[in-house]
Amino acid sequence: MVIKNVSLDIVCGVTSTLPKTELPHIAFAGKSNVGKSSLINALMNRKSLARTSASPGKTQTINFYNVNDALYLVDLPGYGYAKVAQAVKEQWGKLIERYLQNTGELRAVFLLIDIRHDPSANDKTMYDWIVHNGYEPIIIATKVDKLKRSQVPKHVKALKEGLALRPGTAVIPFSAETKQGREEIWELAESLLFE
Ligand code: GDP
Ligand 1 pocket, 157 CB below 6 A? Predict the structure, then answer.
């Protein structure tokens, strides 16, 4: 994907109506601090259009980034931030659920998991939720630069087992530092957008 122009077009809060859009969507889900903003910035070739967490867990919105007037990269609110009240967590859950259930334009859902850690209960719930809503999530294993290259296969295997991924589910190691995986993610996204 050659990035010509990007802009944050829509911000949708927990009580807002979901926007009506014409363009196809590619959505990104993941735990707070997993590296979602960094990934979205890397995909858009921007340093800081998507927030990187000064205050993790504060993002209670779905942000729609318009890329080339061709598609939206959709930043779903990060989950699992411990210091947030239960009532607020439930609101986020409902917002994500509403989005997954009511977005006909959604072409692909990427779920981000930190490659260094076993998936959490929240990660598993999110994975199951995406599957339950009829999507086949693609897993992005973030921060791969933090591992030695030789350790990567072992961690990918643990991640597959931890999430009980369905056979054939793609797992793409990614680093916002080195941009490893960026092209692969775009290729996959484009193949799903225009299939
Ligand atoms: P978000 O809360 O999921 O949006 O996470 P951020 O993108 O804000 O990243 C959280 C923290 O992890 C920040 O300090 C980032 O600099 C760091 N980070 C994100 N991606 C990477 C990566 O690929 N490699 C390394 N080493 N650090 C990363």
Answer: no
